[in-house]
Amino acid sequence: MSKSNIKQFNEIAQAFKMTSEERKDFGNFLEEEKAAGYGGTKNERGDFTYQELQKKAREFLGLELEEENFED
Question: Which residue has the higher pLDDT, 15 or 4?
Answer without folding.
Answer: 15
